Amino acid sequence: MKNITIQxxxxxxxxxxxxxKTAEKxxxxxxxxxxxxxxxxxxxxxxxxxxNKQLTDSIETVxxxxxxxIFQKDFDKDNLRKILTDHKIDLIxxxxxxxxxxxxxxxxxxxxxxxxxxxxxxxxPVVIMAGGKGTRLExxxxxxxxxxxxxxxxxxIDHIIERFRAFGANQFFFTINYMAKxxxxxFEEKEYDYKIDFAQEKEFRGTxxxxxxxxxxxEQSFFVSNCDIIIEADYSDxxxxxxxxxxxxxxVAATKQYNIPYGVCELNGSGSxxxxxxxxxxxxxxxxxxxVLNPDILSFIPDHGIFHITHLMExxxxxxxxxxxxxxxxxxxxxxxxWSEYRKAIKIIESL
Length: 352
Hints:
By secondary structure, the chain is α/β, with parallel strands linked by helices. The chain folds into two domains: 5-111, CBS-domain (Roll); 126-351, Spore Coat Polysaccharide Biosynthesis Protein SpsA, Chain A. Helix content is 27%, strand content 28%.
């Protein structure tokens, strides 16, 4: 059995790290005697973060103290499948008579791969913004367009596509401009089992302007991804989060924690010292460059000129639209858009 157990004194940040190391979406909270006292899902952590709580908080007020479980003596596969299906959960712990966790059953163990997990397939279109010059990656991008920069044994765009394909996505749109002919030629020579289409800018339109070219071609909520990021996350859950909460845009954000290794001076209104905070920690949510958008909001994008995703969000906000934030851990976000991060990305990909 994989070690997916944690204790209640564990911090939220530590729990996120444990979740990232396991393929499961659930951690089992146990006491000192390894008896089950709760469960913690990535959704529990996400709700904690969205309440503007700290990553350094313990999970004591975050985990579910009343999880589903089954005793070993009552084990029945049909009943277990019914629990998984009826309650749309991914994992059920198996306990002995003393409530000690001795094993667990996942959706895949119960059903095999026939049903594809607890609703983890999507049919949403994916738009990859692939038209930028990638100046931060020069001189590579003097020769190749940024989406074709190799990360490991394949270009970054293939890494992005593979992660969407793993969740069933089958239709991809590429907005192109810089070295557009090379982008087209790459896919002309490539064998693939999904649908692709290109939307070519006549001028550089910024981080959202080229989406105007797809107005009328998209009939359902769709993903938008920068071409220099790789996100290790449950794309189906991101999409469900967007639909369930009826957002117009959902932004995927990575949790960043910064520790200042000094005493920080805080002043009062008169300029005198109020207090010194020793080595404070600050938490932020950073835009990763992955979004889910509703097709109707493309009408806010003008036909010409530079228009960034931030402009779209501002226009949407001014017109009463709603924007959601879906947090992921910092280690789930691989950024290859600048040299320092590109070197890290190669090491991460090679270790997967």
